Sequence to fold (267 residues):
Amino acid sequence: MGSETILGLVGSPNREGRTNRLVSAALESAARAGAATELIQMADYVVDACKDCLPWVCHNNLKCTYDDDAFEYLSAKVLECGALVLGTPVYWWDTSGMVKYFILKMFRIYARSAPLRGLPALGIAVAGGSGNGLISGLRPVYHFFQTMHMRALEPLPATRFNLAAALNRASDLGTQLAGMVQQRKPFAGFEERLLWYDSLPYLSLSRADERRLLAGLITTNLPDGADPAIVGGLVQADVLSAEGRGLEALTEVTRVYESGVKAFDGR
Ligand SMILES: Cc1cc2nc3c(=O)[nH]c(=O)nc-3n(C[C@H](O)[C@H](O)[C@H](O)COP(=O)(O)O)c2cc1C
Fold:
């Protein structure tokens, strides 16, 4: 792998799961656009927990003080790649443990020296159960990108309800990454980086807005023959919200969500 390779990390123990499909879709379209790509299953390289050892020498040595072959391997791959796609399943509104452990060691060792400045990056989170946490699962990934000064594209929140659309979006974003891989664009300073990340969609949504987004994803993907009143409920929720009746609006969103899931699952 060289500095022009787009590296895809699949942060799920399920090698053939949705995370794999989404990361692969991004890499495959990048490859069609002429980029070299490599996919790694993080399940094959599960990083140990950072031990918070003192004195804190790893950020000077640029190496974990403890033997951790998985971390050595993964971090070397990330440090030498030309762009990064990091995919995580959503576990309890958060990333998977293997993604979190990797990120935490990267912070501990590299946050100060920031060797990934300007690296193009794409984060994908897939909430394949209830769909809850589709945004909160992305935040740790984008916090990682931001802290490491990477130049991230817009995040890709995926659920089992919008998987087909998310796969298409992953392909589009993969094509975009292919065009960025030759040029790292570091931020001029802290402020530019802060504004860049603040301007990305989804990440600053409230929990209530996240739930509204999820209900919207479900209603736009309802099977044929689903009760049209489900979609009407969402319109009603938005009217209530515009009137400042937040609790009633969110209660309606939940009703839509629950009937939508039932319809989606054919129950
Ligand atoms: C421990 C655990 C926690 C989970 N938490 C959530 C969750 O908060 N929201 C959700 O929609 N799905 C949740 N799921 C379901 C996974 O997101 C879903 O199975 C997803 O497809 C996993 O990605 P994969 O197919 O790449 O393995 C959870 C699964 C596990 C094992």
The beta strands are 5-10, 36-41, 83-89, 120-127, 151-152, 156-159. The chain has two domains: 5-198, 207-264.
